[in-house]
Structures are given as C-alpha cells and as structure tokens.
Amino acid sequence: MTNIIHDKPEQLEQIRAGLLQGEIVYAVYDCIGVGTGFVGITNMRVILQDKSFVGNKLAIVSVPYKNIRSVSMLSNKSMMGRFASTSSIGIDTGGSIKEADFRGDDKARHAHDLILWNVLTTK
Predict the structure, then answer these.
(1) Tell me, which fold does domain 5-121 have in CATH?
(2) Per-domain residue ranges for the chain?
(3) What is the pLDDT along the chain (123 residues), one digit of tens a residue?
(4) Locate the YokE-like PH domain: which residues (predicted)?
(5) Beta strands at 5-6 and 25-30: parallel, antiparallel or unpaired
(6) How many whole angstroms separate alpha carbon 107 and alpha carbon 121?
C-alpha cells in the first residue's frame, strides 16, 4: 500500500519505525484533546500515542485485535446528520477503554470501521 491515509507525515513515520515484520499500515490519524496524540491502524493492531502521563512523558500503546472486545463511535451531532465538528472512538480492551477524539465525523467513522473489520476477521 503506497497511498496510506494519514494526517501528519511525522506520525506516519513514527508508526513505520515501530512496525513488526509483515505488518502493514492502513491509516494514521491525528487526534485532538488531551490524552491521545494519534491513532495508527495496521493489519495486526491499533497503535495509540498516549500523552496523558505525568511529566510530559509519551507512551506508544499497542492493542492487538484479539484483545479488543468492542469498538464504538461517538459523535457530538446525530449520526444521521450531515455535520459533526468532533467525534470519538472508544476501544474496549476488557480492562479499560481507550478513547481517541477526531476532527469531524469522517475520520472517526473510517477508523471505527477499519478497526471493527479487523476485529471481526482476525478472531
């Protein structure tokens, strides 16, 4: 895949630098808000940059699809409406829910659908 969906080239490169053998990047989306810097979606896992640690520390959190119990999409506008200024996805791993906030509805919708497809096809 040469045309990877991404918002910021530096985030895509950060994901590429940590790929496992045979891993393919599908998308890397920049996130807004306090906790998550970006979400990377590959054929093996969801990768989140977590900025919520004390002392300005960052963590790269990998969530294999087999550990995801559910994925949800939340919007501040009606899903049937034509406009949403922000939207979020929630990833339930059984012990916690990882949340990522996006600008607009389309990126969260694509991330949700891509994660759900991988969860359903890898279990």
Answers:
(1) PH-domain like (2.30.29)
(2) 5-121
(3) 468 999 999 999 999 999 999 999 999 999 987 677 899 999 999 999 887 666 677 788 899 999 999 999 987 765 555 555 678 999 999 888 988 999 877 899 999 999 999 999 986
(4) 23-83
(5) parallel
(6) 21
